[in-house]
Amino acid sequence: MSRLDESLLRGVPPFSKLSRPEIREILDLARPGRHAEGAAVFREGMAAERFFLLLDGFVRAVRTSPEGEQIIVLHIPPGELLGIAPAIGRTHYPATAICASESVTLSWPVRLWTVFAGKYDGFASETYRTLGNRLGEVQETVMELATKAVEQRVASALLRMVHQSGRKADGGIEIGFPVTRANISEMTGTTLHTVSRLLAAWEKRGIVESARKHITVTDPHQLMLLSGASGAGSP
User: Fold this and answer.
1) What is the rounded CA–CA span in Å between residue 208 and residue 49?
2) C-alpha to C-alpha distance for 30 and 15, rounded to whole angstroms
């Protein structure tokens, strides 16, 4: 395998304050990985033997309920760490990481976590900033499940994905990774039938366009109103 180039980590927040020689040290310890869409980088309950940096692609963090239902907790974008069980004092992964698209990672043995945190400027602070952001996103989702109607929850989920990964497309903003109606139902605590009905109705109103695994928001303002972000939407 060819030697990894330092440019891979330049500008990536956990390592953005480091010198080129420091980045070289880190890369020489890394294991690169390429993961197909739908593949698990690691699974909930597995011993946390490695931690990862997502270089490209998107990853879904998925938890399994006591009843066996899969719940998509959040999406992780490129440039962020995942599998960071040591940061929260865990020895096992608390969720499954499923690739929402083809993804590329670097990973290191978990024994290097404390080494990186102590040796490299900005590594620890960026890690805890990331954890804080993810906790905030999870809390927001929990509040939506508890207080919002189904239509608002689905609209909010689409808006989050657009905000995180949206790219300009003909007629609107396309979510930047494959997403199915089943995925949306797992994010919003509702049924596949309800998600399909809502998307079909929104397509007729010109708010979204939905093809196989691809969703484009054609009227973001109307979707925001449906989410209840401006005090509008379904009761």
Assistant:
1) 42
2) 13
Q: For all residues of the chain together, what is the average pLDDT? A: 89
Please state the φ and ψ torsions of residue 64, each to the nearest 5 degrees.
-110, 125
Q: pLDDT higher for 65 or 154?
A: 154
233 contacts: CB under 8 Å, gap ≥ 6: 149, 151, 152, 155, 225, 226, 227
> 42 and 97 in contact (C-beta within 8 Å)?
yes
Q: What is the pTM of this model?
A: 0.82
pLDDT digits (tens, 9 = 90+) for 24-33: 999 999 999 9
Decide: 68 and 33 in contact? Cβ < 8 Å.
no
Q: Which residue ranges make up each domain of the chain?
A: 6-144, 149-227
Of 167, 79, 91, 160, give the one whose Cα is nearest residue 127. Answer: 79
Q: Which fold has domain 149-227?
A: Arc Repressor Mutant, subunit A (1.10.10)
Asked if 47 contacts 94 with a C-beta cutoff of 8 angstroms, the reply is no
Structural fold of domain 6-144: Jelly Rolls (2.60.120)
**Half-sphere CA count of 27, side-chain side, radius 13 A:** 20
pLDDT, average across residues 71-92:
90
Give the integer Cα–Cα distance in Å for 86 and 113. 7
What three-state secondary structure class fits 135?
A: helix
Query: φ, ψ for residue 212 (rounded to 5)?
Result: -60, 115
